[in-house]
Amino acid sequence: xxxxKIEIVEGLQKLIALRLRNSPPADMITATVSVxxxxxxxxxxxxxxxxxxxxxxxxxxxxxxxxxxxxAPSQFVRLLPQREQPLSLSAPVDNKITQQNKKLLDDLMRxxxxx
Length: 115
Known about the structure:
Blueprint: H1 2-17, H2 29-41, H3 49-66, H4 73-79, H5 95-114
């Protein structure tokens, strides 16, 4: 889960650069990263880089845009957007049903032509 730690470090760097009230002092930044990583990585989420990297960046961007004081990990978790649902394919069409429908349509067309 190295990618997750990298995203957390980058997000926290942005928050620290804002010099928000209650930001951790320089000698506590490493400990802050550790606490945030532990808190976020142990959430009941099966973290997946392809599904979650964008969500994490979005949550940190929202924190940067809305916080006046340094946030807690719980604020990050609340701002984490839902995962985008992958597009799903429809079930394959049964060729037998397609042939039956074609036959019914052909029969209907013959009847309509007779009238």
